[in-house]
Write a structure and sequence with these properties.
Distance between the termini: 42 Å
CATH superfamily of one domain: Phenylacetic acid degradation B
CATH architecture of one domain: Roll
Radius of gyration: 18 Å
Number of strands: 3
Mean pLDDT: 85
Structural class: alpha+beta
Largest sheet: 3 strands, antiparallel
CATH class of one domain: Alpha Beta
Length: 93
């Protein structure tokens, strides 16, 4: 068993895009987690930015509360992007 904390790794592949979760690793501290993430997840220049977050510091919603947490407020359906056409030529939307 590894006694080092578990870190979640997020990579941003291009400027202007969001970071995406790519995996997890164990490391003693944030500096080592960044170095290990670089070696493990960006070997072929896949990223422009790396985030590492201690897994113990992530607080997640309870899947059993999905209906109440993510339900659209009555009368606010217009907030969903399905009501708007996507213009031609728009990338990364």
């Amino acid at each position: 068993m590894n006694d080092a904390p578990l870190w979640e790794v997020f990579i941003r592949s291009q400027h202007g895009l969001a970071h995406k979760h790519v995996g997890s690793l164990h490391a003693a501290d944030a500096k080592l987690a960044l170095l290990n993430a670089r070696d493990a997840y960006t070997r072929r220049n896949e990223g422009v930015s790396i985030w590492v977050v201690r897994a113990a510091d992530i607080h997640a919603s309870d899947p059993r509360e999905e209906d109440t947490l993510f339900e659209s407020p009555k009368g606010k359906e217009f907030r969903h992007a399905t009501f708007f056409p996507t213009p031609e030529g728009v990338k990364n939307l």
